[in-house]
Write a structure and sequence with these properties.
The complex is a heterodimer of chains A (114) and B (113).
Chain A (H helix, E strand, L loop, with lengths): L3 E4 L2 E4 L5 E7 L5 E8 L3 E10 L2 E4 L6 E7 L2 E6 L8 E8 L8 E3 L3 E5 L1
Parallel strand pairs in A: 2-11
Antiparallel strand pairs in A: 1-3, 3-8, 4-5, 4-9, 5-6, 7-8, 9-10, 9-11
Chain B lengths: L3 E4 L2 E5 L4 E7 L4 E9 L5 E8 L4 E4 L2 E6 L4 E6 L8 E9 L6 E3 L3 E6 L1
Parallel strand pairs in B: 2-11
Antiparallel strand pairs in B: 1-3, 3-8, 4-5, 4-9, 6-7, 7-8, 9-10, 9-11
The chains are: A mainly beta (114), B mainly beta (113).
Chain lengths: 114, 113
């Protein structure tokens, strides 16, 4: 157990509303990631963070923003949700090792945008 | 661009059989390769991590090998059990992708009692 908690675990919202997903870790890891998982596309990186206030884009970052004001929390925000953002969102942390550390995942947040 | 392929996409075997799952990648400049298991509706569970300097890693009934030069990894599962039924994903972290993890599409394994 890598001490990762995602909230909410399930959310249904309407098109155009803002949504924030939270990832909380208890072990002070530097690197945190947000992925989305969709049938036919597998897992795709949205954004990642390499420290407090240090974030960068992944391959599918359009329509998403992130913030990391504390080591333990990494927030993913959909400013105006669209149906194409219906997905399962996973947070991950990288255990020790700049490039060689092992990745651990949270349980996921299932988002439905109507 | 790094591409990760897992074949087959699905596999069904009887209980007790030894089996091999395959993962191939196109760019051999990698830091490491990681195997995961995902149960339906759940997150990913890390099974094994192989660094680029290693040839294999073992954990219980699982053995993962890495041949960086040929761009291949295999996950060997000994004496399969119905509880092994899940989707297995491999992912590589490459030098040329800014250290990002690139995932394969997974192999869905079903072990029949």
């Amino acid at each position: 157990d890598a001490g990762i908690t995602q909230s909410p675990r399930h959310k249904v919202t309407e098109t155009g509303t803002p949504v924030t997903l939270r990832c909380h870790q208890t072990e002070n890891h530097r690197y945190m990631y947000w992925y989305r998982q969709d049938p036919g596309h597998g897992l795709r990186l949205i954004h990642y963070s390499y420290g407090v206030k240090d974030t960068d884009k992944g391959e599918v970052s359009d329509g998403y923003s992130v913030s990391r004001s504390k080591t333990e929390d990494f927030l993913l925000t959909l400013e105006s949700a669209t149906s194409s953002q219906t997905s399962v969102y996973f947070c991950a942390i990288r255990a020790s090792g700049e490039e060689t550390g092992e990745l651990f995942f949270g349980e996921g947040s299932r988002l439905t945008v109507l | 661009k790094q591409e990760v392929t897992q074949i087959p996409a699905a596999l069904s075997v009887p209980e007790g059989e030894n089996l091999v799952l395959n993962c191939s990648f196109t760019d051999s400049a990698i830091y490491n390769l990681q195997w995961f298991r995902q149960d339906p509706g759940k997150g990913l569970t890390s099974l094994l991590l192989i660094q680029s300097s290693q040839r294999e890693q073992t954990s219980g009934r699982l053995n993962a090998s890495l041949d960086k030069s040929s761009g291949r990894s295999t996950l060997y599962i000994a004496a399969s059990q119905p509880g092994d039924s899940a989707t297995y994903l491999c992912a590589v972290r490459g030098y040329n992708q800014g250290g990002k993890l690139i995932f394969g599409q997974g192999t869905e394994l079903s072990v029949k009692p």
